[in-house]
């Protein structure tokens, strides 16, 4: 079972077991990790689950056009920015470290 370490903007860490098939956003919601609002519920149409993937054991899937569109609206976008609703937990990706932004928009 992969482990995800969420790091809040203030440095508070939450290390949780992640069930395969769930999105990183769903894992954060399951464990009440603050910092991901998920206003659209995972439809990649709001960008309020923005995160920074600091580390992953395996390769991440490519950013699709819808995710790219939402990330393009973020003034704090970085090269490792992703929408957590678009990242599925799997053994091939493995453990991940996710940093959360100061604000969701």
Automatic annotation (TrEMBL):
The keyword Metal-binding applies. The keyword Hydrolase does not apply. Keywords: 2Fe-2S, Iron, Iron-sulfur, Metal-binding. InterPro entries: 2Fe-2S_ferredoxin-like_sf (IPR036010), 2Fe-2S_ferredoxin-type (IPR001041), Adrenodoxin-like (IPR001055), Beta-grasp_dom_sf (IPR012675). Residues 2-104 form the 2Fe-2S ferredoxin-type domain. SUPFAM superfamilies: 2Fe-2S ferredoxin-like (SSF54292). Its cofactor is [2Fe-2S] cluster. Coiled coil: none annotated. Belongs to the adrenodoxin/putidaredoxin family. This is (2Fe-2S)-binding protein.
